[in-house]
User: Which sequence fits this backbone?
């Protein structure tokens, strides 16, 4: 059945490091009759056994078992946990680990997944940044901990900002727009402003001194690239979920 390679979004930037693996799943990889596509989220109305099989297949594409993944019960906050084991972490929107083989995983359908690697510090991090987390600077706070607690130098932090809702489509109300500097908003007559969430998260990393060339942005927009990506904004209750994972390899 699953004989074709699983379509994944890979970071070319992080792929240059042999001791780290990073990827983001897409909506593709299931049979055409699967109502939620290649869904990796439970409790959405999809069949649990199908979701489990998809997670196993996704993990395998990263050379992991499903049991190697560390998940967060994401709450759009700014709690960052340093973890050393796989499993599920309550009330968490970012994780850091120095433990090889622990696949730090973010679940999204429009929110921004940010994967960080600090080679000198031997640490990786995964961040879930929707507009609330972005307003609370969760990406900056996570990278700042890599610098302050793990001894990473800004010039030696590398980041992959995964596919998410883009400024082309991500409309927000005026109350949300007011939380962000005007430069991150695109306005057109008679419409709600559109917010550049990936751009703001990138800026949060630049503000710490992480060089431009160390930051890769996937660029695909979840809302309008319906063949490739899930979008809660577009599909609501019928939207599947994607995962993005970063892991330090054990064998290198
Ligand atoms: Zn778009």
Assistant:
């Amino acid at each position: 059945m699953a004989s074709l390679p699983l379509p994944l979004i890979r970071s070319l930037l992080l792929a240059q490091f042999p001791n780290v693996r990073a990827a983001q799943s897409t909506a593709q990889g299931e049979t055409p009759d699967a109502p939620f596509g290649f869904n990796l989220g439970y409790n959405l109305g999809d069949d649990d056994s199908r979701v489990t099989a998809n997670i196993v297949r996704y993990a395998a594409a990263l050379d992991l078992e499903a049991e190697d993944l560390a998940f967060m019960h994401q709450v759009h906050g700014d709690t960052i946990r340093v973890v050393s084991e796989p499993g599920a972490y309550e009330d968490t929107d970012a994780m850091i680990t120095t433990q090889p083989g622990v696949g730090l995983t973010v679940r999204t359908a429009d929110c921004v997944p940010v994967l960080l690697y600090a080679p000198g510090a031997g640490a990786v991090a995964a961040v879930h940044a929707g507009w609330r987390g972005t307003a609370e600077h969760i990406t900056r706070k996570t990278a700042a901990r890599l610098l302050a607690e793990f001894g990473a130098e800004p010039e030696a932090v590398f980041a992959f900002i995964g596919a998410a809702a883009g400024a082309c489509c991500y409309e927000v109300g005026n109350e949300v727009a007011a939380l962000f500097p005007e430069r991150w908003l695109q306005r057109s007559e008679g419409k709600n402003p559109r917010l550049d969430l990936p751009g703001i998260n990138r800026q949060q990393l630049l503000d710490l001194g992480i060089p431009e060339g160390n930051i890769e942005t996937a660029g695909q927009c979840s809302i309008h690239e319906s063949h490739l990506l899930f979008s809660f904004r577009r599909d609501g209750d019928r939207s599947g979920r994607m995962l993005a994972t970063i892991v330090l390899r054990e064998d290198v």
Notes: The CA atoms of residues 103 and 171 lie 32 Å apart. Residues 166, 168-169, 221, 223-224 surround zinc ion (CB under 6 Å).
